Structure formats: structure tokens, C-alpha cells
Amino acid sequence: MLCVLVCVSLLSGLVLGGPADSSSSNQRLFEAHQRFDKRQKLDPEVHMNISEIIRRWGYPAEEHEVVTEDGYILTVNRIPQGLRPTTGVRPVVFLQHGLLAAGSNWITNPPNTSLGYVLADAGYDVWLGNSRGNTWSRKHQSLRPDQDEYWRFSYDEMALKDLPAVVDYILKTTAQEQIYYIGHSQGTTIAFIAFSSLPELSSKIKLYVGLAPVATVQFTQSPMTKLSVFPEFLIWDLFGRQDFLPQSHMIEWFAEHVCAKHVLSELCGNVFFVLCGFDEKNLNVSRTPVYTTHCPAGTSVQNMVHWSQAVHGGRLMAFDFGPAGNMKHYNQTTPPEYRVQDMKVPTALFSGGQDTLADPKDVAILLTQVSNLVFHKHIPHWDHLDFIWGLDAPEEMFSSILDLLQKYQ
Predict the structure, then answer these.
(1) Residues of 129-162 as b/e, b for ≥16 C-beta within 10 angstroms?
(2) Which residues of the chain are under the pLDDT cut of 70?
(3) pLDDT digits (tens, 9 = 90+) for 34-89
(4) Which residue from 53, 134, 208, 212 could staple onto 297, CB 3.0 to 4.6 Å apart?
(5) Residues designated catalytic
């Protein structure tokens, strides 16, 4: 979600005044802000964590910590039941967010347009994952986030270490044998890798639902992937070897003082979505301050380099450490390729016709590789973020997901 940086750059010029701004226009905008400040209260969810947001809407919330085999401590949020508690066993649904995002993606719209709440009210035990290194999963048994070593991971580790640890923890906690898995964007990439490489893990998944699925990014047109135009050494030099776009006080200020203003909220929404594909008519603009303070939630620079490699390579490969590094990590000079064809989990996919990140041409290739594809719905007018925040998601997607979960009990 590099869109946040663009928002900061463009809208700070509007608010603070750029070289081409006149002092009179700045003064009028400042006075307008003051008037709106008096009329409007900031959405309290801007400064809430995931559990606090869930409880604000009347739902029960839990926080769990899961330790991976390499010592990362992941926070997993849980909505154990809906507003009207049901008796008996509630099947588990695990929701995994995308790149630079967090578990809050599933609950930052009001309940009727947030998948997390809809599933809870439908009788499911809902768990929300947080990938290593994001806002809510920055702990480790022995490393600290101010150490380079902490950030030596990419979506390889999220797939092969984080996901098995979380699934096993959930099954142990709930005493169930299988769960449903729903992923968005990078959350689908993680699933394709894990379920094709780890047969024991895949046997624990009843159904895999992929939203805006990403296995390859050969045809992506998203400006977010234009990072790949830089040679790798320059990416490391520019961004260092630790975290990339973590949540920060600057972003919080931006959300509170820019996105929250009615006079600017629609523009903020448009710019916010420009790098990820946007449809302002399908965005709850009033929620923009909440979106902005929860995303981006950060990841490692190494993870962004891995995505850059994927754009260049056009295939779903492990991280490329270079010939010498690959010999050390994989005992071969090139990184291994993940074979989506080997995945046996029943799979349902939802794709968008205006998605510039999960490009329809990449999705078309993916559809030929999924050996147990049980459902596919293409939504022509959807972009990459409609899958988590679209106002028409209940009609376009939620009902189909609920039907699929019921079918694969």
C-alpha cells in the first residue's frame, strides 16, 4: 500500500501549501478545516487495536500469541462467536491478509460489509492472522525489530513457518481437525506455497478461498510493483535491511488531519486507492481515516525484494539469494520453484476485472494450474481492494462464500 506515501506527498501539498499554491487558497482551506473540525468528531477506531475495534461493535474478541519454529511471536485475533451466540461446535475460518496489511482488514468496515463479522454472525469461529513483522506481530523470542537479523524473511517464511504454526495452534485450541482458509492477495500467495509444499498442512484445510489471487505477477500493471525497476542493490541501499512502510506517527497524523476532513475525504479516498486500483463509488469514504491508520502495517524490505524478483521472474519462486546464497539455502544455484499444480486442497477463487495487482491475465494462467478448482467468480468491476472494503461485497461475494463453506462442511 504505497498509496499512503503518495497521499502524504500530494495532500500535504494541498494542506500545507506547495510552491504553486497561493497564500489566499491556503488560508481558505485552513479556515474550511477549522469549520469541519468543529462539526466532526474523529472516528475512535483510528486509535484502536484490532480487539478494541471488534468489541466496539459488540462482538467478543480474543488475542492469542503463536510462536513459530524460528522464534517469531505472531498475534492472532479471534471472534469466537457472533452477536447472537449459537450452541454446538462452530467451524473455524482463518482469514489471512495481504501485503503490507493486517488482520484489521477484515473488520474495518461496519459489520454488514466486513467479512470477519459476517462470518461470525453466520455461526463461524473466526480467526484473523497477522504476518510476521506487521504492526501486531513484531515480537521474537530472542531478536528485536531494531536488529537486521529480525527482518531476514519474506513470504517464504510466512508460508512455510508462520502458517503451519498458526493452523496447528488453532486446531489445538479449538479441538477441531480441519479449518477453512480465506486469503487476500499475498494471503493467497502464502496458501499456494504452503498447500502445494506441505501435504500434512494441506490435509488440515477443508476449503481454500482465494480473493484477488496472486501466484505470479508477470502481467501486473500496479504502480506498487514498479519497485522492481530498481536493481536489488539499490532497493537495499534506499530502504535498508529492516522494515518497509511500518505504521508510523506520520501516517496517524495524516489520517487524523487530512483523511478525516469531509472536504478532503473523497479526494483522499481516490489518491489512497490509486496505486492499488480504486472505485470511489464502492468505497465507504467515511472509513478512510481508519483504513489509513491500519494500513500500511509494514513488512520486511526482503519481502519487497522478493516481490520485485517475482515481477522480473514471472514465476512463483523461493527468494533468490544469488548463486552462492542459493547453494547455502537450497543446495542449488537457483531458487526452487513452487508448483501450484501439486496443491490438492479444494480451491475457490474470486478475481476482479479492474485489478491491476492480481491482473486478469495472471489469474487466467493460475486457473489452469489449480488442480482442484471447485469454484471461480470473476467480478468485472472490482479492483484489488474491493475484496476487503467493497460496499457491494455482501451481494457480489459474501453470499457465495457462505454457500461454499456450507457445501464443504
Answers:
(1) bbbbbbbbbbbbeebeeeeeebbbbbbbbbbbbb
(2) 1-40, 223-228, 245-278
(3) 443 444 577 899 889 999 999 999 999 999 999 999 999 999 999 999 998 788 88
(4) 134
(5) 185, 384
The tally of CA atoms less than 13 A away on the side-chain side of residue 244 is 27
Contacts of 240 (CB under 8 A, 6+ apart): 301
- Whether residue 217 contacts residue 310, with contact meaning beta carbons closer than 8 Å, is answered with yes
Distance CA 385, CA 397 (A): 13
Name, in order, each residue with C-beta under 8 angstroms of 33's C-beta and a sequence gap of 6 or more: 15, 257, 261, 263
Residue type, 291: Y
In this prediction, residue 27 carries a pLDDT of 45
Q: Provide the grid cell at 291.
A: 483504513
Distance, in Å, from the CA atom of 138 to the CA atom of 296, rounded to the nearest integer, reads 14
Would the CA dihedral through 259, 261, 267, 269 be positive or negative? Answer: positive
d(C-alpha 341, C-alpha 320), whole Å: 22
Sign (positive/negative) of CA torsion 46, 350, 408, 400?
A: positive
* Count of alpha carbons within 13 angstroms of residue 43, beta-carbon side: 28
Rounded to an integer, what distance in angstroms lies between the CA atom of residue 184 and that of residue 387? Answer: 8
Residue where the block lists cell 499456494: 192
